[in-house]
Amino acid sequence: MTGNTTVENAAKAVEEKIEATRESLGGRMRERVGEVAGTVKAKANAIREKIRETDWEDVKTNVSAYVRDNPGKSLAIALGVGFVLGLLLRRRDD
Predict the structure, then answer these.
(1) For 83-93, what is each residue's pLDDT tens digit?
(2) Could you tell me the residue ranges of all domains in the chain?
(3) Which of 19, 47, 61, 73 has a CA 20 to 30 Å removed from the CA of 9?
């Protein structure tokens, strides 16, 4: 599945960035970043497994049913998510 490949690539990129950051620091800071990196890697692996185990057809069916049963709420949620993503991803011309 393409989604799993994307998740794997993103997880690998995050791990590489963490390692590069840890290696660029010295002393106690390196140890602390190493501890945090271990925690982040463990959580990333847990999320990766959860994504792998998810039945996406079931998710799609549930979302479709929710949207059919709650069109107003669904539209409000979509608008809210779109607004937040727009704020996060907009280009800064400052």
Answers:
(1) 999 988 887 66
(2) 1-54, 56-94
(3) 61
User: What is the 3 state secondary structure string of 16-66?
Assistant: HHHHHHHHHCCHHHHHHHHHHHHHHHHHHHHHHHHHHHCCHHHHHHHHHHH
Sign of CA dihedral 19, 20, 23, 25: negative
For the four alpha carbons of 24, 29, 30 and 34, in that order, the dihedral sign comes to: negative
Which residues, at least 6 apart from 48, have a Cβ–Cβ distance to it below 8 Å?
A: 7, 8, 11
**At 91, which amino acid appears?**
R
Q: How many angstroms separate the CA atoms of 87 and 94, rounded?
A: 14
What contacts 7, CB < 8 A, 6 or more positions away?
48, 51
The pLDDT value given to residue 80: 95
Give, in order, the Cα–Cα distances in Å from 63 to each of 34, 44, 66, 69. Answer: 39, 25, 5, 10
